[in-house]
Design brief:
- InterPro entries: G6P_isomerase_archaea/bacteria, G6P_isomerase_prok, GPI/OXD, RmlC-like_jellyroll, RmlC_Cupin_sf.
- The chain is globular, with a radius of gyration of 16 Å.
- It is mainly beta.
- The longest helix is centred in the N-terminal third of the chain and has 8 residues.
- It binds 6-O-phosphono-alpha-D-glucopyranose and fe (ii) ion.
- The site of fe (ii) ion has 5 residues, from loops.
Length: 189
């Protein structure tokens, strides 16, 4: 039997950085078609800000193993919509996931393939259980980076297809200074 080595790392709780992790950067240009307000998107694209960064420690895609990653989701809006992660189903759709809030303010939008959506607010210390089959997207509703940890099966994979195409059935927007979850005009069954 070949055993893998255990690993302990300290997440920097201020910046979300995991030492030795693989870093992924997503800019606004990587999110083309994701926001409803296309005019506001084109305008902000001139600056092309970083929307989020992911620091991941990933294993081979094998049944039974676990990956973990922090995400640093920056504050901002495109039109009325708060900055968010792309969002995905798992390629192995029955794989669940756990998120843990570290810093800042935000939430998670979850959705079944039929379009039943749920919104769960997150702050430091919030644990969110993502059940099998639910798509999930995080949203920064605050004015500082929203940082969280996620732990997920190594063989879960990311299925971006249907979210990239029609998004979630709900949008998280600012209305009169309040965070509101409203129906998405882009959603079609
Ligand atoms: O992949 P996205 O939907 O853009 O979300 C960004 C990332 O968020 C978390 O860190 C998840 O653990 C990652 O699996 C995911 O890649
Ligand atoms: Fe996931």
């Amino acid at each position: 039997m070949e055993y893998k080595n255990p690993l302990g790392v300290d997440i920097d709780l201020e910046t979300g950085v995991i030492p030795g992790a693989k870093k992924l950067v997503r800019r606004l240009s990587d999110l083309k078609g994701y926001f409803v307000d296309e005019k506001a998107y084109e305008e902000l694209l001139k600056e092309n800000p970083v929307v989020y960064e992911v620091y991941a420690i990933e294993q081979e895609e094998k049944d039974g193993d676990l990956n973990f990653a922090t995400t640093v989701l920056y504050p901002g809006k495109v039109g009325r919509e708060f900055f968010f992660t792309k969002g995905h189903y798992h390629s192995k759709a029955d794989r669940a996931e756990i998120y843990y809030g570290i810093k800042g303010k935000g939430g998670m939008l979850l959705q079944t393939p039929e379009g039943r959506a749920e919104w769960i607010e997150m702050g430091p210390g919030t644990v969110v259980y993502v059940p099998p089959y639910w798509a999930h997207r995080t949203v920064n509703t605050g004015d500082e980076p929203f940082i969280f940890l996620a732990i997920y099966p190594a063989d879960a994979g990311h299925d971006y297809g249907s979210i990239a195409e029609k998004g979630f059935s709900k949008l998280v927007v600012e209305e009169n200074g309040e965070v509101m979850v409203v129906d998405s005009p882009k959603w079609k069954e």
